[in-house]
Amino acid sequence: MDTLQAKGPSHGVSSIPGVGYERSVAMASTEPRISIVIPVYNEEAILHSAVVDLRERLKPLGWSYEIILAENGSKDGTVALAQELSLKYSEVKSISMGEPNYGKAMKQGILLARGELVICDEIDLCDTDFHRRAIDILDTGEADLVIGSKLLAGAEDDRPMLRHVASQAYSGLLKVMLGFRGTDTHGLKAFRRTALLDTVRACLVEKDVFASEFVIRADRGGIRTKEIPVRVMEKRPPSINLFKRVPNVLKSLIKLTIAIRIRG
Ligand SMILES: Nc1nc2c(ncn2[C@@H]2O[C@H](COP(=O)(O)OP(=O)(O)OP(=O)(O)O)[C@@H](O)[C@H]2O)c(=O)[nH]1
Ligand SMILES: [Mg+2]
Q1: Who lines ligand 1 at CB under 6 A?
Q2: How far is the CA of 244 from the centre of ligand 2 (A)?
Q3: DSSP 140-177
Q4: Residue range(s) defining the domain that contains residue 254
Q5: Ligand 1 atom at minimum distance from 123 CA
Q6: pLDDT class for 207, splitting at 50, 70, 90?
Q7: What is the pLDDT of residues 25-74, one digit of tens each?
Q8: Section 100-122 average pLDDT
Q9: How far apart are the C-alpha atoms of 220 and 201, rounded to whole Å?
Q10: In a designed cystine with 183, which of 14, 29, 151, 224 is the match (CB 3.0 to 4.6 A)?
Q11: With bands split at pLDDT 50, 70 and 90, how would you rate the model's confidence at 211?
């Protein structure tokens, strides 16, 4: 069984049962209203500056927030940097464990989050414009889950055309195989934590497909969801060649279809 340690300012440690793994989390004396969960993997080149910039851009918003850096499997200096950041800034927590696995890190980060509202971001995006728009929508009570879509009318996808087409094809497959009714499952997300906790816990497939399973389960579970258009740019070359990704994506889609359609 994994032990998940959130490193941050320690005001007491509590073990919280029922999340599928033992959890020890440093509790701060006041609960933040917003938890920003950011998965990180081999990000030593940008981690420090991204967190420092993010804190600066959040300042004018006046939010009470925590940033949870959810790392696993990094081979570079990411873990040490994340720990350094969590010691330096009281609102930054870092968790670190196991093999590289985006979905597992996200799930654990979300389950550790204490905020009433949770934002799922990516370290190369840290898109505070999305944060602000999404939190405004959650605050109006219009939706419990907000998804930033790069494929919705009004969105700007400035990545190479091939990547845009691949994202469209992937969403098309989700529509055909799983009846997905939105346009994008991989965009940034913000949600009301208590409304989506069961959905997160129900997700069975890890790695990259977690994002799709989470959104599709939310939709099938009747969660009020709103997509908003976002702008995405390619900030760095993809770590894995698009064509090399295809077999794994197809395998994952089959797993996801079995998880949702058969296992329920
Ligand atoms: N914990 C964890 N985080 C990951 C893993 N793979 C990717 N990430 C993080 O997930 C976020 C998105 O990953 P990217 O590599 O930017 O993937 P992408 O956005 O699909 O691809 P790009 O368009 O090339 O940026 C980043 O914050 C990564 O550090 C992983 O195996 N484990
Ligand atoms: Mg990225």
Answers
A1: 38-41, 43, 70-73, 100-102, 105, 122-124, 234, 236, 238-239
A2: 17
A3: HTS-SEEEEESSSTT-EE-S-HHHHHHHHHHHHHHHHH
A4: 127-264
A5: 27
A6: confident
A7: 444 458 999 999 999 999 999 999 999 999 999 999 999 999 999 999 99
A8: 97
A9: 15
A10: 151
A11: very high
Cβ-contact 162, 242 below 8 angstroms: yes
Q: In this structure, what token pair is assigned to residue 84?
A: 């350094």
pLDDT at 196 exceeding the cut of 80? yes
Do 138 and 261 share a domain, yes or no? yes
What does the radius of gyration of the chain's CA atoms come to, in whole angstroms? 18
Q: How far is the CA of 27 from the centre of ligand 2 (A)?
A: 30
199 and 258 in a single domain? The answer is: yes
Residue closest via CA to ligand 1's atom 13 equals 122
Indicate the residue among 93, 126, 159 that finishes a domain: 126
> What letter would DSSP give residue 99?
S
Question: pLDDT category, 230, cuts 50, 70, 90?
Answer: very high
Burial class (CB in 10 A: 0-12, 13-18, 19+), 7: buried
Atom of ligand 1 nearest to the CA of 208: 6
CATH code at position 17: 3.90.550.10
Whether 132 and 95 map to the same domain: the answer is: no
The protein residue with its alpha carbon nearest to ligand 1, atom 30, reads: 102
Nearest CA owner, ligand 1 atom 18: 238
Please tell me whether residues 250 and 141 are part of one structural domain. yes
Please check whether residues 121 and 50 belong to one and the same domain: yes
Ligand lying closest to the C-alpha of residue 208: 1
**Between 25 and 75, residue with greater pLDDT:** 75
